[in-house]
Amino acid sequence: MTTTFALAVHGGAGTIRRSALTPELEAATHAGLRRALDAGTAVLRDGGAALDAVTAAVCALEDEPLFNAGRGAVFTSGGRQEMDAAVMNGADRRAGAVAGLFGPRNPVLAARAVMERSSHVVMIGAGAERIAREAGLAFEEASYFFTQKRWDALQEMLALAQKGETSADPAVRHGTVGAVACDRNGHLAAATSTGGMTGKAPGRVGDTPVIGAGTLADDLCAISGTGHGEVFIRFQAAAEISARMRYLGESLEAASEHVVQRVLAPNDGSGGLIAVDRHGNVALPFNSEGMYRGFVRDGAEPVTAIY
Q1: Does residue 208 carry a catalytic annotation?
Q2: For residue range 195-207, what is the model confidence (pLDDT) as tens digits?
Q3: Which of 58, 82, 150, 169 pairs with 64 at a CA distance of 20 to 30 A?
Q4: pTM for this predicted structure
């Protein structure tokens, strides 16, 4: 058991080239990450549960249109927004996830509703929406989720596709938000939410709601990933970290670095992840140009970074 807490958040990996980051956008990004850290810290500081902390942190990130989740979700090739999210509680391995969802203000709350109000782990589309409505979650109109930046990114991608070209912008395949936490009782939790890939095929589901790929929490570690989702799924990125800790005795940092740099990177798995263990250690590895990230430990000032 620990008497301290730790929290880490991310807002996506490789999503802004350094050359395109204006001072105003940089300041706004740090502020958004800090708001998420503050939301989770408010729970943990008072002895609250890790699950409540990661949910609060991800809600804050979903409310921020700078990040590809909730209000800032990207568009599919069909011009719609389809959102995925997941939560997992390490103490008992309860988990809930949603995919292809549109309407709830905070998809992560819909994922938690699946965990707490059903006997299932993953629900999609209309079924997930029904549970969200039964839970009394806030819903928003399409105008709430529309951002000109995301719409323009889709138009650019569609124009390239007509010419048989693809975008070199890493934001096309990246863009997720997440949080992991260790509470004062040593319990862990993870939450992840995303709009997916710009111009993705309608119905495509990435690693975010796949337990063991983009989201995982057990009694050893809690992990939230961001990057090329198909590769995270194929190599079960989050589960691999837990397995290396459990069976090889590796530290959180060593296991996380190995998976990101030596498993994902050589297989077109650009991106990164955030992780925390039951002792409050934090790891934030990435193999892309940057990753929006931040962390805070009990008694210390929050830290946020981009590159």
Answers
A1: no
A2: 999 999 999 999 9
A3: 169
A4: 0.96
